[in-house]
């Protein structure tokens, strides 16, 4: 008998389990199209040249010590992170920024802050979404309802904007939180148009919702960090009273990850920014976030934050980094084109045009969970069970094999 006999048996995490299965698979043609982790043209991890240079300089710096960081995190990192998200849109706004354990930690901190002090009845999560949104909110407070709002329309491979807006308008309650993917939506690769973003902002204002932007792929949608921050900056500026709308300015949060944009997957570099209407509100948020951080982490890890700060505070390295983003997004775009060509060349049943117009790392293939299982078993090609394909694992060397495998499975 153990005290833990009564603990529920938790099934393994689906994504990690697939990665393990892929590792254990010894088929010579296996292809991993599951992870949201950038791979180079040989399907190998890629260290960004800008990161490599900043890292080398840091390691060569004999004066570098290992003192603890300030409570909010690495100061230059935080100023650069804030600038990257908001640029010059923060006039008249009061923002609290804290370093976090990557995007996951930022999502977790804001969930903790809201759950313990604003007590939302529900959090609205797009359908579909990154699995961990459910997991984080369940973990923080299982008492907060996790409701989904319609997002992806499988028939059009686009967003069902009307359903999205009407669901929120009719069913959300004042004070509810809503998670919004700032760009390069995971898993669909489809983002709202500027008009739809305006509609979403308006519903949030009308209903008194608290938006949480999940900004995990800045630079991956268009290759340009400023274009990719459009939605975040739109919320900031429309809330500053510059846009002639009479609604109370929104307060909202941005959960920012540097895993993808800097290729720093293992360093866990992130930030949470909370935009408040008043100085006093921002000061209170500052206090609560410091308390959460103290209780959970005490102090954030420094190395990854130092790399990001070094890149973003050096014009030459920053220019290189912007080029690195173009290299990554460009490779993914060219793999989209190649897969599309190979699918169409074979006359693969289905509509594939969205593969070209989707953005970021992912597209939905429309393959059912059964077909996803079949393509894994027969061809050793790994996708997520919801049919999401990550272009990061596609290369010139395997794209024809992948297209042929999809063809064989759907024909
Ligand atoms: N948000 C989204 C939408 C993601 O897809 C991911 C990672 O896949 C994250 C947040 C968090 O990633 P990390 O904790 O590595 O920054």
UniProtKB/TrEMBL annotation:
GO cellular component, one term: cytosol
InterPro entries: Aminotransferase_I/II_large (IPR004839), Asp_trans (IPR000796), PyrdxlP-dep_Trfase (IPR015424), PyrdxlP-dep_Trfase_major (IPR015421), PyrdxlP-dep_Trfase_small (IPR015422)
SUPFAM superfamilies, per database record: PLP-dependent transferases
Keyword Transferase tagged: yes
Co-factor(s): pyridoxal 5'-phosphate
Keywords tagged on the record: Aminotransferase, Pyridoxal phosphate, Transferase
GO biological process, alphabetically ordered: aspartate biosynthetic process
Domain Aminotransferase class I/classII large positions: 30-406
Family: Belongs to the class-I pyridoxal-phosphate-dependent aminotransferase family.
Protein name: Pyridoxal phosphate-dependent transferase
């Amino acid at each position: 008998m153990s005290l833990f006999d009564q603990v529920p048996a938790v099934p393994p995490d689906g994504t990690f389990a697939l990665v393990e299965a892929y590792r254990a698979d010894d088929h010579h043609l296996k292809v991993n199209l599951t992870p949201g982790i950038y791979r180079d043209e040989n399907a190998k991890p890629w260290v960004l040249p800008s990161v490599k240079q900043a890292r080398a300089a840091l390691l060569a710096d004999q004066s570098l010590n290992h003192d603890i960081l300030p409570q909010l995190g690495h100061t230059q990192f935080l100023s650069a992170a804030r600038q990257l998200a908001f640029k010059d849109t923060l006039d008249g706004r009061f923002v609290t920024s804290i370093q976090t354990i990557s995007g996951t930690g930022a999502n977790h901190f804001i969930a903790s802050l809201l759950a313990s002090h604003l007590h939302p009845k529900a959090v609205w999560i797009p359908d579909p979404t990154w699995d961990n949104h459910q997991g984080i909110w369940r973990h923080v407070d299982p008492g907060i309802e996790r409701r989904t709002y319609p997002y992806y329309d499988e028939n059009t491979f686009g967003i069902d904007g009307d359903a999205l807006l009407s669901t929120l308008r009719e069913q959300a309650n004042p004070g509810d939180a809503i998670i919004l993917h700032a760009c390069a939506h995971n898993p669909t690769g489809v983002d709202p148009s500027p008009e739809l973003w305006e509609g979403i902002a308006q519903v949030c204002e009308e209903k008194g919702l608290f938006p949480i932007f999940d900004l995990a792929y800045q630079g991956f949608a268009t290759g340009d960090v400023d274009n990719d921050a459009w939605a975040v900056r739109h919320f900031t500026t429309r809330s500053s009273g510059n846009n002639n709308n009479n609604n109370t300015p929104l307060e909202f949060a941005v959960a920012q990850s540097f895993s993808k944009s800097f290729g720093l997957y293992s360093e866990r570099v992130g930030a949470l920014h909370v935009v408040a209407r008043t100085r006093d509100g921002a000061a209170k948020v500052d206090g609560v976030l410091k308390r959460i951080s103290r209780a959970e982490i005490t102090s954030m890890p420094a190395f990854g934050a130092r790399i990001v700060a070094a890149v973003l505070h050096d014009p030459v390295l920053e220019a290189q980094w912007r080029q690195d983003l173009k290299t990554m997004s460009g490779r993914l775009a060219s793999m989209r084109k190649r897969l599309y060509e190979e699918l169409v060349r074979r006359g693969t049943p289905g509509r594939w045009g969205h593969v070209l117009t989707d953005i970021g790392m992912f597209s939905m293939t429309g393959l059912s969970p059964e077909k996803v299982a079949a393509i894994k078993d027969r061809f050793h090609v790994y996708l997520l069970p919801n049919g999401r394909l990550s272009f990061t694992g596609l290369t010139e060397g395997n794209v024809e094999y992948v297209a042929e495998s999809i063809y064989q499975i759907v024909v």
